[in-house]
Task: structure prediction
Amino acid sequence: MTEKTSAQAANPARAPSSKRLEPLRNIDAGVLNIAYYEAGPADGPVVMLMHGFPYDIHAYVDVAPQLAAQGCRVIVPYLRGYGPTRFLDKATPRSGEQAAMGADMMALMDALGIKRAVFAGYDWGGRAACVGAALWPERCIGLVCVNGYLIQDIAKAMVPARPDREVPLWYQYYFQVERGRAGLAANLRGIAKILWEQWSPNWDFDDACFERTAVAYDNPDYVDVVIHSYRHRFGLADGDPQYADIERKLAAQPPITVPAITLDGEEDGVALATDGNASAPKFSRRRTHRVVSRAGHNLPQEAPEAFAAAVMELIKA
Amino acid sequence: MADFVDRRRRLFLGAALSGVTARAFAQSARNPARAPSSQRLEPLRHVDAGVLNIAYYEAGPAAGPVAILLHGFPYDIHSYVDVVAQLAAQGCRVIVPYLRGFGATRFRDFATLRSGEQAAIGADVIALMDALAIKRAVFAGHNWGGRGACVAAALWPERCTGLVTVNSYLIQDLGRAMVPVSPQYEVALWYEYYFQIERGRAGLAANRREIARILWEQWSPDWDFDDATFDRTAAAHDNPDFVDVVVHSYRHRFGLAVGDPVYADLQRRLAPLPPIAVPAVTLDGDADGVLPTSDGSASAANFTGRRIHRIVPGAGHNVPQEAPEAFAAAVMELVRA
Result:
């Protein structure tokens, strides 16, 4: 069933572009020292808010206070390769594979002593949330995800899409060659800004808003993690052996067995809005799909009310 | 320059998102007569030339000065549908070959590598001239064909009376292929990066018309071509070697495919970027959606003979088909010089 919801029904207040999610906390978790923002009561139901590429925790600058105000304990980590999150060992492969993203989230919950949480995310973070929900359902109260089921079917990665859907993936193809790696390293901001504009055609972000996030790309592992992520998903880079078992499980495209709400931005410029039917078999429990009018790909930052409302529905259920 | 960058940015972003580029205006009112979309360059002739049996169209007096018109990707000989008539009417013998991998041109041996490297395209031009016993000609082209013309003009100047190219000096500097350019220009090269991986090869094979149409629209935002015009050319992409030649071309230029050893010596001579010594006229469309419109100064050092650079108003990347008068005039200037 598809519902439709409005991004800016009453034009609610937005945090100014100068507002940062601070102070950050840091904790050793698995192979990382993870920097994260926390808000809300320590004993509230926990929500993990996972950002995407090329974004950062400020995708949740409005979602986090809305959830905290409703009693949630909100955890917003910088993914590996972003912001002040660091690898503990210089020898750890800078993998950007989906299994690593999911494992990082579980390692963070372990480090913080969090038993269960709502997993919510979009783009890379939505994939991490799907991976966590599919493989560790006992840790997951519910899933909020933009663009449906995001676990990559790497065995089918060489099947072309319609040409007009391949064009927006220019950056993924660019990153396959060393020119793309060099181009990303030389133009971290230039590439990200093009993607923001292509993916969110209605989002009128200002320079301060962009720059607040863009500093997260200056992480020393950003280029390596990004390049590995986009090569691995096409089967063109080896994974980190420590995630081989998780990747094997993901190759079977495991179902999501927790309650889920999936959101599509009506104006998403990279992953087209859907009615959710194609991914329906991947959700074996209650699942609601909504199209958020006017929103693009960065849905939590563009339509925070719709995103926060989805999280709260799963908590109250 | 700022205006130009903004314009391109708009084109790239819009085109990349929708696959359909808004056209600023149609070029109809002030335009001179154009051949109808139904007109084909026929009949074709065929000749064994080097590794190919080349299909080509010929027009004009047999004794006239020769102009060889070389098409690009993803186009065909009908880029010259209006240029040909204009040049023939002015006394030129016009030869318009289908490049390897396009239309009715075929490889003679199934074992020949389906190379799309620049040396091969240039060598094919000379092989065609040899087969037709043409001693000297004006070489004129755009895109792949412009590159073939540059290669032949640089390495066989004694066969070339003059060079007309779109986008100036087109010999690829493979040694610098991994140096990135500004991101908004990389966006426009999406197809080149797509073709680096097997998904791109499969996508081209499955969707060659859709891909070509997106490129036409991105590269020529002001060109109001109709379906019949597109289909007339797109049929040339059904050549059995099209996908192999195209994919090889775009991999080789990034140093990611090995060249045909037959052309290794030519490729070595192209590596130092040999100058063009013959007289040259270079044209840039001012609405080219894939390569930047330039003032020609950056490539000036590559031309050691007389060289004129012009910007063609309203034209995109397919200059000979969009602005045939400007293209034909450039050829005639070299013929008469």
